[in-house]
Amino acid sequence: MSRALLASVNHETAAKAAVHLLQSSHQVPPVWLAAPFLLLLIMIATAPLFYPHFWERHYIKVSFGLGSIVAAYYWFIMKDGYILRHSLEDYISFIALIAALFVVAGGIFIRIDRKGSPLLNSTLLVAGALLSNFIGTTGASMLLIRPYIRINEGRMKAFHIVFFIFIVSNIGGALTPIGDPPLFLGFLKGVPFFWVFSKLWMPWLFTIGGLILIFMVLDSRAGKGKMTTLEKSGKVTVIGAESFLFLAIVIGAVFLDPAVIPGFPSFQHMFHLPFGIRELILFIVAFVAYKTANKEALRGNEFNFLPIREVAILFMGIFATMIPVLELVGAYSSAHATEFTVARCYWLTGALSGFLDNAPTYLNFLAAAAGKFGMNSNTPADIQKIAYGLSSAIHGDVTSDIYLMAISLASVFFGSLTYIGNAPNFMVKNIASQSEVEVPGFLEYIYKYSIPVLIPFFTLIWWMFFKY
After folding, report:
1. Which domain holds residue 248?
2. How many domains does the chain divide into?
């Protein structure tokens, strides 16, 4: 078959797939319903600067209030309880995992009896980036942020926290499906487990290496500061090591899903509950881990529930208000699936992942990429074909694996653009603030660090891999 004929067939098949997606979907919400999400985002960004006292006292009401507007519209106007239930299930899965990791990590006290230095800090960041692929970006962030702050006592600057978020809380976790939620969803959809490493290790190494070099230059200029600790033994002590057992249970529980284990029971289907066995285990682990945690470790970490409380409340509002935004994005991606280039997939997935939950953003663009090749994103066999590049794209010689690579990388890397791009970002910010560490505000984080530091790297990655 000639290339022109192949392109024509692919174009027609993809167009039919896109039309089918639109016809099978329910009513698309009005564009104005995205206003509560935008308002919540603006308030998160501006409150610390202009009305911090109001925000501290009323952010719970704001989050619940804006979320309720969207929920009420879907329930009473659109008569769509299914999507509300689905969003609730996603939220419970989200909060169960990060709560379990937050509590378990709080019971592990890591003492590094050395003063912070560019070399030691860089080593810790690289170790965190690697570790995030085994226990997730949330697990690695919660485990390392406190010792990272302690060893830099007296010399900690805002960029220390920002680069920790860049490297450990986001980009580091791009090598395995365990590392970040969108990659795990891809694994559930049929992407082979080791495919991620085989495709993303080169841009991962390039970005992590470049960020570490910039960090070392900045850290060398930070000086020694006024170090208050006298400990210089160089030893690494772990108190509460028994909590690593709970950490192993949490990671194992992540895979308790019918999509991973065929025939695995589902509470959602059996008892019509908005959570499953996995979430129940995670909540139990969080409770037991806290009750049995080493008290010295909890004191050493100055553990309290304020950071996870604020994350739980704000993200409840975010999950609710972003429902119409994600639906509008999904409708657009389905209608324009045949027009998507690799570059468009990369930049759109990335831009939206920085401000929306990167997991559903990943799924929307995965569906668009599948539609472009006349395949179904809910069919594991089709996803495997896309991952292995067994289909040619509509334009030129670009194969489907490049699209999946662009979507996977962008959904993880671009999560570092804002505090709400990934759950551990906000938690790290809160822990640092509680430790009275200098932390940039929402907008300052973007214009002072994300844009000048990250965007050049992301542009170079686009130019090297995805300029199609």
Report:
1. 3-465
2. 1
